[in-house]
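Same chain as my last thread, 344 residues:
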Amino acid sequence: MSLWLVFRRWAAQHFHALSGRNLLLLVIGYTVVSYILLFAVGESALIQSPTDFLYYLVVSASTVGYGDMSPTTVAGKWIVMLFVIPGGLGLFALAVGRVASVFIDYWKQGLLGRRKVSVENHILVLGWNEQRTLHLIKMLQYEEKGHRAIVLCVRPDIENPLPGEIEFVRTPSFTDSQSMVRAGVDTASCIVIDNSEDDVTLSAALFCANQNPNAHILAYFNDESLSDLLKHHCPNVECIPSVAVEMLAKAAIDPGSSELHHELLSTHKGMTQYAVQFPTDSKPSKVAPLFNGFKQQYEAILIAIDTGKGVELNPPLERDVPPGAKLFYIADERVDQIDWSKCT
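reply #2:
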């Protein structure tokens, strides 16, 4: 076997698995050898300063060839033809390929959900129900545009369904500490748990409540008994039971009820239900002035209040509303700036 064939096999094996450290050593070696060779043949114009020398190597290796610097001796031209340019081209291609590989790998890690998210105070969605989850995310994006980021954390082996729009993390389990840290479970301000299996939802809610007790946690259940069980252990978790059966029964008795409820929940169509907190520094008020103020100022209808004892629908006009109470209203769009002086 010829020495050339042995060298080719060695080069192919080592350059294919070239580490960043070895690549750096090759670049340094190439630079030193080039300097020694050019110095030996008297190419003083190319090596008169470190800046000029490195500039010439980069221009030659990248094939730009400005022409402002070039060898003048016969030996110098041969050295440049046989070593400086070929060696530089190879190293330049390797370096560019390595940098591109790093960026591609970083992008793939995010697409496959293997990278730690770099957001805080975000909305963390746990679970994947295909179009249902996409619809949920679209509604959250509409509501949270310019505010909180959205992170989707799933168990199935899928890629980010909305790359560039949301952060994405894959996990073997919603109770796996390492992967849940990557999803930012401890820094999320809101955690939405929506799975087809209620037992997974229950365990995920218990884990999240333990990891981030300050987060607003919402858990969707098909079985209301599990919802009651979770509320017993984590009273601060907001449990959302399935209302499919109730909706069917209501629509059967009062036709159009399902469409009405759908519109109240949709942020894209017609009137929608929103909530706002009555300022803590305001004076106590009655429902009547708030009801009239919302309607006259914002074409909104006050439908319920929560003074800390649960939601009260259609409260009496003389009901007291203390500072800090939650007010629920229906409007075409969320009222971001409320002039409370005109509503009390």
